[in-house]
Backbone:
């Protein structure tokens, strides 16, 4: 059996700190210029366009931008343009496209439709000479380098970091320079209780709220993609509307918590699920009856990046423990091009 440390997923996730440091430095001047334009001419609305892990980064963008700037953010349905051929009515909008490859036809169709409607295109993309990159009014390369594992890790964290760098420059609030060091510390966090407990699991919920919802979505995808484990992601608020019926002794939950206004509600939900006898793993706090997963102390916007970094290491270890190769999930390819 392969060892987790020998997998590309493990090795590439471990590169996230140096990847983020490289990206923050390379994009600093360009981000400052774009932020100045956003302050001078703020968009009336922002539209995100992404698929898969990049769409989970877009969820983080939604909460980060809406809570920090007040500009509403909506997610584009790519098939509206690529399948139905409908042009959006955007007005003074900004289209934020996030992608690793920058090559999927439906993503490009959505960006083209947004541009034709007058939207400014900002692209965060790892392949800097991709079709998406060439369409962008403002290109913010992720600088993650080649990612060979099918499971995206360092490019996802670079997407989150790029979004945080942009919004911090836009609002003039927050220093992103500590982020590479925080990610380095997060990689060393011991989440082995999670991997050990889920070795024989059949399914679970992954929960978050606000800034943490995007990484809950990402973690659920990685459970399915690399561990053959069915996982569903929900908002801590949304899980009470029906999904709570499944929670009990045989149904685990992984809950992400960041230190902000959502923390009290997250704690209450974690305690309630633990009281029902469910195995609850909580990242970011200690509660009675709950397994605490250690999280490096950081502000609310950086905490999700730190937590998903710790999670990636645990996911690689769980994948191998369950008899999978996280680098070669069945039926999947590194670049997915949908229409």
Residues:
């Amino acid at each position: 059996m392969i060892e987790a440390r020998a997998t590309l997923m493990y090795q590439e996730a471990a590169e996230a700190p140096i990847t983020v440091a490289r990206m923050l430095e390379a994009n600093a001047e360009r981000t400052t210029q774009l932020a100045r334009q956003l302050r001078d001419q703020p968009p009336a609305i922002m539209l995100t366009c992404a698929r898969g892990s990049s769409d989970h980064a877009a969820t983080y963008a939604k909460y980060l931008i809406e809570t920090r700037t007040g500009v509403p953010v909506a997610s584009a349905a790519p098939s509206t343009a690529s399948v139905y051929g409908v042009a959006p009515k955007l007005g003074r909008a900004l289209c934020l496209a996030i992608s690793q490859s920058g090559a999927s036809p439906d993503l490009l169709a959505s960006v083209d439709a947004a541009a034709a409607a007058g939207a400014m295109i900002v692209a965060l993309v790892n392949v800097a000479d991709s079709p998406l990159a060439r369409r962008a009014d403002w290109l913010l390369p992720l600088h993650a380098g080649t990612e060979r594992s099918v499971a995206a890790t360092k490019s996802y964290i670079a997407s989150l970091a790029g979004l945080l760098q942009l919004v911090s420059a836009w609002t003039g609030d927050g220093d992103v320079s500590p982020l590479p060091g925080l990610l380095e510390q997060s990689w060393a966090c011991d989440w082995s209780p999670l991997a050990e407990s889920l070795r024989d699991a059949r399914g679970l919920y992954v929960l978050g709220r606000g800034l943490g919802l995007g990484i809950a979505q990402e973690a659920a995808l990685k459970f399915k993609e690399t561990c053959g484990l069915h996982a569903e992601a929900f908002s801590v608020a949304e899980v009470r509307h029906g999904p709570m019926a499944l929670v009990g002794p045989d149904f685990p939950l992984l809950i992400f918590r960041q230190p902000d206004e959502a923390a009290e509600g997250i704690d209450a939900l974690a305690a309630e699920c633990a009281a029902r006898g469910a195995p609850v793993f909580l990242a970011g706090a200690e509660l009675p009856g709950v397994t605490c997963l250690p999280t490096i102390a950081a502000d609310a916007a950086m905490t999700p990046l730190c937590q998903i970094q710790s999670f990636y290491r645990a996911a690689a270890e769980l994948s191998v423990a369950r008899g999978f190769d996280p680098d070669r999930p069945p039926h999947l390819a590194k670049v997915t091009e949908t229409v």
User: Anything to note?
Assistant: The two ends are 38 Å apart (CA to CA). The chain has a mean pLDDT of 93. The first strand starts at residue 45 and ends at 49.
